[in-house]
Amino acid sequence: MATVAPLSYSSYRTYLECPLRWKFLYVDRLPEAPRGYFTFGRVIHTVLEALVRPLVVPSARRVSEAESQRTLDDWQSTAPPAPTEWMTREALLDYYERSWLSDGYGSAEEEARYRSLGRDLLSRYYDRIAEERPTPIAVEEHLEATWDGIPVHGYIDRIDRTQGGGLEIVDYKTSRELSHEDARDSDQLTLYQVLVERNYSEPVAGLTLYHLRSLKPLRAPPRAPTALSVLHERMGTVSDGIRSEAFEPTPGRHCARCDFRSRCPEFRTVPPSDETRLRDLVDRFEMLRAEEGRVALELKKTAQDLHRAAEQLGVHRVPGTRSVAVRRKEEAWKYSPEAVRPLLERVGRAHLLGSGSPEEIRRLLRDPSIDPETRRRLAEVGARRVRWYWELEEPDGGG
User: Fold this and answer.
1) pLDDT tens across 336-378, in order?
2) Residue 133 CA, distance from chain mean position
3) Rounded Cα gap, residues 121 and 47, in angstroms
4) Following DSSP, what letter does each residue of 74-102 receive, concatenated?
5) Strand order in the sheet with 167-173
6) Domain assignments of the chain as residue spans, ordered by start
7) Taking the domain 9-263, which CATH number applies?
């Protein structure tokens, strides 16, 4: 079993989307081609970190767990050194220009559009934040924890102190569209809540996706224990899959933007030397599959005809030329626990109902400690299902 490095949200999401792509990224360490929208997001985050960092008033941390090396889903900033004091609007835009990266854009026109968008976002955000400056205790904070046996980590854009003394987690988003439902359902924010709760003494009071294009903070309350349990179970499944080296591809719409299609068995082409041999096998498989469907329908109809004839004649054994067809009966009972439980509660026997399986209830029907009237009512709520099927035997009765 492989050792699992701490899971970040990006790593977790990648494995859910396609385990084989996760392996290419995190085990084989294969690089992906840069994409303009990712580059743009990194630059914006770098500039916002530089803007807000002078406002940080650190808070006491719990005893920290050992920190790990950054994984492939984390990025190294190539921006110039950030100012140590609050920047003017002009200084902010100058820092943006000096931090700009051109990686991954499809054309000069696309890069120019993003660059202009970034200036607009930052200018409007500066005007907004200058009116009411936040009270951060950390920006771009790397936190790590062990969540009930699962090692996790993440880089959190901003952690603010609220007026009530709690902590608010803020994650910047440069995407086109975002809604309050996104904040309410975000696994990323859920994981960040776990990381903050395990690294700081103050409680998490709120979770926010900050939509930079609209300057809207989309807020949600802290996750309830049930929501935390759901994510923990999913991350446990991912962790188990990685540990057992389950790296099968999961084809889907995401394949169109995958950089590893040439390495993936879903898209790898057959060598020319094997094309003829494999084409013949595929053609034969296609023919047999079609025949299989036809034979299955004919088999079903013949069995039904045999059953009707046996019913009319009152026989269970029908001889053929080489075999004897023997009619067998399979019987099953189904009971609704919702119907059974009130009957048992009425006579003080509800404790006898455990799993509610049909076998268990059939045993209750034979239990002499339950009065006959209750057993009769229990029998009435059951549904009996009978299925007839045929087996072939040799004429002398052999198998």
Assistant:
1) 777 888 888 888 878 777 777 877 877 888 888 888 888 888 8
2) 36
3) 11
4) S----PPPPPSSPPPHHHHHHHHHHH---
5) 136-147, 150-161, 167-173, 204-211, 216-220
6) 9-263, 274-309
7) 3.90.320
SS3 at position 253: helix
Q: Please tell me the predicted confidence (pLDDT) of residue 71.
A: 41
* DSSP code string of 129-184: HHHS---EEEEEEEEEEEETTEEEEEEEEEEEE-TTS-EEEEEEE--S---HHHHH
The two tokens of residue 313 are 């004649």
Name which residue leads in pLDDT, 108 or 337.
108
Helix (H) or strand (E) holding 39: helix 36-52
CB 96 within 8 A of CB 26: no
207-247 confidence digits (pLDDT tens) = 999 999 999 999 999 999 999 999 999 999 999 999 999 99
Q: Which of 235, 203, 237 has the alpha carbon at shortest distance from 222?
A: 203
| pLDDT tens digit sequence for 271-319 | 899 989 999 999 999 999 999 989 999 999 999 999 899 889 988 889 9
DSSP class of residue 244 equals: T
Q: Is the pTM of this model over 0.85?
A: no
Facing residues of 328 across strands?
389
Residue with tokens 């041999």: 277
Cβ(22)–Cβ(14) under 8 Å?
yes
